[in-house]
Amino acid sequence: MGIQALTESTFNQVIETNDLVLLDFWASWCGPCQSFAPVYEQASEKYPDVVFGKIDTESEQSLAQAFQIRSIPTLMIFKEQIVIFSQPGAIPASALDELISKAKVLDMDMVRAEIEKKKSDQPA
């Protein structure tokens, strides 16, 4: 499937119509972003059932602000429209493989129950 360049206008549609989406927030001037790019590209070829998106923080500043991106690259994983992982910094291929494997088997009913529990624990 390859990597999709996401914009503010395509973002919601991609998140809402795919179960598992990995996002790489990056910029062309960022050295660590450039070194992470081949790792991300290889993973996109290895996992054709997962959507891989890239968000250029320079041209998509509103998305970067919405997700409070302070450092790039930042990897974010959405499963069933819920952010289940977000971490700045380039990661090695083995760590990315492990993250994808864990994301695929994550029980989203448990995640949703935990989110509801946290909401109910907060004072009104």
Structure commentary:
- It is a single chain.
- The protein starts with a strand and ends with a helix.
- It is built from 5 helices and 5 strands, in the order βαβαβαββαα.
- The protein is α/β, with parallel strands linked by helices.
- The model has no long low-confidence stretch (mean pLDDT 94).
- It has a single domain (3-121), classed as 3-Layer(aba) Sandwich (Glutaredoxin).
- Strands 1-3-2-4-5 form a 5-stranded mixed beta sheet.
- The radius of gyration is 15 Å and the shape is globular.
Rg result: 15 Å
The rounded distance between the terminal residues' Cα atoms is 44 Å
The helix/strand series, from N terminus to C terminus, equals: EHEHEHEEHH
Approximate shape: globular
Number of helices: 5
Q: DSSP strand (E) fraction?
A: 15-25%
From the helix content, strand content and strand pairing, which structural class follows?
Answer: alpha/beta
Return the CATH class: Alpha Beta
Q: Which architecture per CATH?
A: 3-Layer(aba) Sandwich
CATH superfamily: Glutaredoxin
Mean pLDDT: 94
Helix % is 40-55%
Domains (count): 1
Q: Would you tell me which CATH topology applies?
A: Glutaredoxin
Strand order in the sheet with the most strands: 1-3-2-4-5
Strands, total number: 5
Runs in which pLDDT lies below 50 for 5 or more consecutive residues are: none
State the main characteristics.
Glutaredoxin, single chain, alpha/beta
Fold topology:
Layout lengths: L2 E3 L2 H10 L2 E7 L4 H16 L4 E6 L4 H6 L7 E6 L2 E7 L4 H13 L2 H14 L3
Parallel strand pairs: 1-3, 2-3
Antiparallel strand pairs: 2-4, 4-5
